[in-house]
Design brief:
By secondary structure, this protein is of the alpha+beta class. The protein has 14 helices and 8 strands. It is 36% helix and 15% strand. The chain binds a DNA duplex through helix 1, helix 4, helix 6, helix 7 and helix 9.
Length: 363
DNA sequence: AATCCGGGGAG
DNA sequence: CTCCCAGGATT
């Protein structure tokens, strides 16, 4: 959880995680959906998938015992140099120096390291310096002290050099060059995309509630395994209502003689990811199955038209059943009662307008 | 070696 | 707005 995520952000997730999955056996036997629900909103969901996979390996191949061996532990999915060093030193007292973003910032100032902190080449330079400083007696305490120093004193901006315990050893402070370190490579501008998103609503008399159509994202890639509402990337110039109708026709493969009402604009949501930004226009559409007529059965090979090849929010979609009715059998699409939406792990974008979807039930 | 992968807190 | 976080996997 702590990978690329600040401690204060993690704490609530961490305790909730431990209460829901108290042991490595619970984690290994958990449903991915349940784990993702715990992880929902924390980001970098591959961490959750890897952690679960690692737990399964430890349980099935190591009798449930986390290996107190760096090289063995390092092999587990989601465990890199930093995590291996941190866990082995803190949990098992093994002499490995953990090098994270905080440590690299501290080292870059202590030794005026010119190499960009995130360059691949510079990694071993920082690692060597950290190895050199490592306390053989208390490696866990050393690692945590270095990270804590970076987080609380040797901060990215306005470092607290006047109260720094290693001020006398700091080459950057000696030359009053704290602001010049660490050196970071120039960052690039991120592109912006336009999406349309369709909330398809169906009256469910049997449930005495309305249901909406949600889809599960592919297990790998961006936001892997999370649920969302059907969406696609569009050209910013195109009419969004028409785009919605075309989207429904091409990818929801609605039965021709069923009635999907005209999309109604619900809201606009903006969201920024690591390397791109999206503006999502969300539309509401009422689906009324025409029970007296038989939906056309379309050949999926013919009817399916691949779209969004750029692999944006909805990445390369697999072949889908020909009709929206058949979709109910497809586990990547589900009709869900509105009052049960909170049981599913959703993307950040979906969560931004989920309250408005819930209000549909009372409208 | 470069890119992908989230979301939020701080300034 | 910008910056960056107790990084790792993939290509």
């Amino acid at each position: 959880m702590l990978q690329q995520t600040q401690v204060n952000t993690v704490i609530d997730y961490y305790y909730r995680f431990l209460s829901k999955l108290p042991t490595i056996y619970h984690l290994a036997e958990s449903e991915l959906d349940d784990l993702l629900k715990i992880w929902e909103g924390l980001g970098y969901y591959a961490r959750a998938r890897n952690l679960r996979k690692a737990a399964q390996i430890v349980v099935t191949e190591m009798d449930g015992q986390v290996p107190a061996d760096y090289n063995f532990f390092r092999q587990l999915p989601g465990v890199g140099d930093y995590t291996a060093a941190a866990v082995q030193s803190i949990a098992f007292g093994q002499p490995f120096a953990a090098v994270d973003g905080n440590v690299k910032r501290v080292l870059s100032r202590l030794f005026r390291i010119i190499e960009p902190v995130n360059a691949h080449k510079s990694q071993q330079i920082f690692q060597q310096q950290a190895d050199h400083l490592l306390s053989a007696n208390r490696p866990g305490a050393y690692n945590q002290a270095m990270m804590e120093l970076g987080a609380t004193v040797c901060r990215p901006k306005s470092p607290g050099c006047t109260i720094c315990p290693v001020q006398d050893f700091c080459q950057a402070f000696e030359k009053d060059e704290q602001g010049l370190f660490p050196v970071r490579p120039a960052k690039k501008k991120i592109p912006q995309y336009r999406l349309i998103c369709l909330v398809v609503v169906k009256d469910d008399a049997a449930l005495a509630t309305k249901s909406v159509l949600i889809t599960r994202r592919r297990p790998d890639g961006l936001l892997g395994g999370l649920w969302e509402f059907p969406n696609r990337k569009i050209d910013p110039e195109t009419d969004r209502i028409a785009a919605c109708q075309q989207f429904a026709l091409e990818e929801l493969e609605l039965p021709r003689n069923s009635d999907l009402g005209t999309p109604i604009f619900l809201t606009q949501v903006k969201h920024t990811y690591t390397h791109f930004r999206v503006v999502v226009d969300v539309f509401l559409s009422y689906y009324q199955p025409c029970l007296t007529s038989v939906p056309e059965v379309l050949d999926p090979e013919v009817a399916y038209s691949p779209s969004d090849k750029d692999g944006l929010l909805q990445e390369d979609t697999e072949l889908k059943a020909a009709s929206l009715i058949d979709w109910c059998m497809d586990e990547s699409f589900r009709w869900v009662a509105i009052n049960q939406l909170d049981q599913f792990p959703f993307t950040g974008v979906a969560n931004k307008f989920l309250p408005q979807v819930r209000q549909i039930n009372t409208a």
